[in-house]
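Feature request, filed as a ticket because there's no other form

It would be nice if the structure record came with a short human-readable summary line next to the tokens. Right now we just get the raw output. Example of a typical job, pasted below so the devs can see what we mean:
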Amino acid sequence: MIELKVGTRKSALALNQTDKVIKKLSAIGISCRIVEITTRGDTTGDMPIRNISGSGIFVSEIERQLRIKEIDIAVHSLKDLTDINNNDLVISAILQRENPSDAFISRDYPSLESLPPGAVVGTSSVRRISQLKAFRSDLNIKDIRGNVDTRLKKLYCGDYSALIMAAAGLIRLGLKDKIKQIMDIDDFTPVRGQGIIVVQTRKEDRELNKIIEKIDDIDTRNCFEIELAFTRVINGGCLTPVGVCCLKKGDLYTLYAYIGDISGRNIKRKIEKKNMTTDDAMFLANQMKKEGRDIIERIKNK
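Raw output as currently delivered:
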């Protein structure tokens, strides 16, 4: 039996996601040993993400260890990857997507609509800040960092009235009961890749990659390729208010897209089509760039 060293972050969510990958690999005859890795994002937990210089803060150290062969494969949340299939590293497997939506969590309120004016909502995502400003401009938005447990403790201690977080992470950790409201994707369009776990490998390891590909979910991969095509045209970067989410039901694809700024100005679009392709996503992105040229320039030059 093959044994692989699997690199991942140390958080409970990262380890949970890695365990899901390991179970799928075990089912095809591969045993694994976890290697826990500290990333730059883990050591700057009190600083807003948008204030941290550089990109890939949650993945760059894991990728470095993959390149120097300290680990054999890496497991990531796909939304954390800033450079997909870059030169020597590839995404050899994409697992079936969990719910990609954002979630509303609160101790005292059942929904975002029910929050009183001035209520403090915690998020460190500029996309969510933009969407919150567009949806409820009367709220007080405050940065929050840390793992899921840390954020929930801050909420229940009364530091925040509510949090906006990815539903997928809460569901995977068995905390679905904490979710008061699943946000409508029309208003809170997720970042590309939200809810998706991936296995990253070295491009040169062709035989291993063929084995890892056996756990790939083709529908999720197709949806992500469409999302990726959209973001590459927009070219706003991972720390800007851009959201895109492609969902497939039967043979019908639905593509949601959001471009905004930190004040909440935005352009939103949704298209539905059978057999959607990356060309459809690029066409939509170019349309939105023309319609919101001033917003796009502000994103690119921030």
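Something like this underneath would help us a lot:
The radius of gyration is 19 Å.
Confidence is low (pLDDT under 50) at residues 51-55.
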